[in-house]
Amino acid sequence: MYEFIKNIDRRWIFLLMFLSVSIPILLQLQFPEKATDLAYSTFDIIESLEPGSNVLLSFDFDPASEGELGPMATTFSYHCAAKGLKMYYMALWPVGPQMIDDRIDMVIHSDFPDMVYGEDYVNLGFKSGNEGVIKVIVTDFRELYTTDAYGTAFDDIPMCQDIYSVQDMDLVINVSAGYAGTKEWVQYAVTPFPDKIKMVAGCTGVQAPLLYPYIPDQLPGLLGAIKGAAEYEMLVGERYGLQDQPKYLEGIRRMGPQLVAHLLMIFLIIVGNVIFFMDKKKEGQS
Amino acid sequence: MKRTVPLLITALGGFVLIIAYFIPRTQGWGEIAAIWFDVLASIAFVLGGGNLIKIHLKKVSDHKSGWGYSGITLAAFIITLSIGLGKIGVNPNIQFPTHEWSGSYREIGTPFWWLYEYVFKPLTATMFAMLAFYVASAAFRAFRAKNIEAILLLGTAFIILLGRTFAGVALTAWLPEWLSGLKLENLTVIIMKVFNTAGNRAIMIGIALGIASTSLKVLLGVDRSYLGQSKE
Predict the structure, then answer these.
(1) Chain A CB within 8 Å of residue B26 CB
(2) Does the residue B133 lie in any domain?
(3) How many domains in chain B?
(4) Which of A123, A175, A208, B230 sits at 20 to 30 Å (Cα–Cα) from B187?
(5) Domain span including residue B56
(6) Closest Cβ–Cβ partner in B37, B41, B137 for A13
């Protein structure tokens, strides 16, 4: 047994990981969530906005991280739409527009059919240049965005007529999977204009530790990975009665497989260390 | 000339951005420099595409090991580019029904949408999901309590792994209120807010100082390595 575990083929570990993720999915394992301060502050900041406030939603992620960030992007869109906020979508990643389209289809077209494109929400699309884009639009939107994602002139879009820069937004919501993302928004938008630009963000698990130094002054709200999304979904769900709508509970649903996968990781680390110490003991004896 | 002009452009762009940050009256200069940067970033896509074709064509023509993958890369690149740029199968925009190319390339049901939805999306999602398998294998083989530092790291990993799920809440729910700071979910927050933030801030300040000195070297032309090697 000892020899088998010591020289175990890694395909057995792959199989264990596959089972630890797939079984909770099939059994629809779900656990209650307890919101942390950061999820509360993210929720409260959006909740405190007046209907009709301008919100810039920058979806800087791609299908690779959609599993982690998609649920929070959906819930952000729902929360803004339910509050009656004006949503300005944009992306710093080339496939960001597809992420925006998915949320518009899933949330606005499906649950808020009365919302009018150009009056209640607009998709400004992708612009190349990473932080260069932020640096320009933070003082002048029209320098880069002459049209929306579908070619309509910026000035012909009713909700864009009074928008000159990011400083005209009441809140920036960024969903980020890496560079360019939350860090660049903090450095090039929030830091130079701390009194005018306020931002909350959602990010991947690996990014979260790197963004904590900006909390709370530059980044008052942060949702870290699927756990952050689940906490935020719980708060939005309780406020707007979404407990029976599965598409707004994706984060909570994905926490089930995550829990079992984390337990497996701990188990593997412990087993690996037991073998390590047994080896050491044997070496000492010989 | 080949090296002097890029050096001058770099120095000019860099110093303009620095001056624009500190002197409000010159803010417009910074905006112009940033717009130039965005224009160049767009052109870089063309350069990147050209480079990709050049490298992979050479690999295919030389029959280097793995040249088949280069062939697939080239085919995927050319097919996607042609369908996207040519707006193949896209319906005209309702506002401009006579203009064939007026529709959106992302329209549902178009070949480009199909490529994105059924090729790009599953492939990239699969690549990212595979990380879980490799991380599990690495956890078993590499995460050893060899010394004090490794034990500290291991302990922190356990707290975070448990504290970020309901397992953490369930395992330490029995702790009385006056010991609530020791509950795993609270310990996770403390680790992230205190130890992680302090460490990361120190690293960030160090990196920022390093970037400032390196940037100054680049702007003053002391460090020219970014220009590559040249006989001139």
Answers:
(1) no
(2) no
(3) 2
(4) A175
(5) 1-60
(6) B137
Rounded to a whole number of angstroms, the CA Rg of chain A reads: 22
| Tokens describing residue A277 | 């110490």
More confident: B57 or A243: B57
Nearest CB to B192: which of A129, A212, A276? A212
The residue behind tokens 């599993």 is A67
Segment 59-88 of chain B within 8 Å of chain A by CB? none
What gap in Å lies between CA A59 and CA A28, rounded to an integer? 28
Which one, of A212, A202, A263, lies nearest residue A20 by Cα? A263
- Give helix B197-219 / helix B4-22 axis angle, nearest 10°: 130
- Reply yes or no on whether the pLDDT at A17 is more than 90: yes
> Is residue B229 very low, low, confident or very high in pLDDT (cuts 50, 70, 90)?
low
Between positions 29 and 48 of A, the ones with CB within 8 A of B are: 31-34, 36-37
- Average pLDDT over chain A reads 92
Angle at alpha carbon of residue A76, lines to A262 and A133, rounded to 5° = 100
Host H or E run for residue B5:
helix B4-22
Using CA atoms, how far apart are residues A87 and A83, in angstroms rounded to an integer? Answer: 11
Is the separation of the CB atoms in A75 and A248 below 8 Å? yes
Side-chain-side CA neighbours of residue A110 (13 Å) = 13
A268 touches chain B (CB under 8 A): yes
Structure token digits, residue B217:
């070297």
Residue of B nearest to A100 (CA): B106
- Asked if the structure places residue B35 within a domain, the reply is yes
- A77: nearest Cα among A140, A29, A121: A121
For residues B232 and B221, give the distance between their C-alpha atoms in angstroms, rounded to a whole number: 16
- Put simply, the answer to whether B38 touches A272 (Cβ < 8 Å) is no
What is the pTM for the complete model shown? 0.89
Q: Is the dihedral of CA A108, A111, A113, A115 positive or negative?
A: negative
Q: Is residue B104 within 8 angstroms of chain A, CB to CB?
A: yes
Residue B232 confidence (pLDDT) = 47
Contacts of B97 (CB under 8 A, 6+ apart): none
Which CATH architecture best describes the domain A37-248?
3-Layer(aba) Sandwich (3.40)
Q: What burial class does residue A45 get, using C-beta atoms within 10 Å of its C-beta: 0-12 exposed, 13-18 middle, 19+ buried?
A: middle
Residue B195 lies in a domain: yes
Q: Residue A1 — pLDDT band, cuts 50, 70, 90?
A: confident
Encoding tokens for residue A276?
Answer: 């390590």
Q: Which of B166, B171, B188 to mutate to test the interface with A (most CBs of A within 10 A)?
A: B166
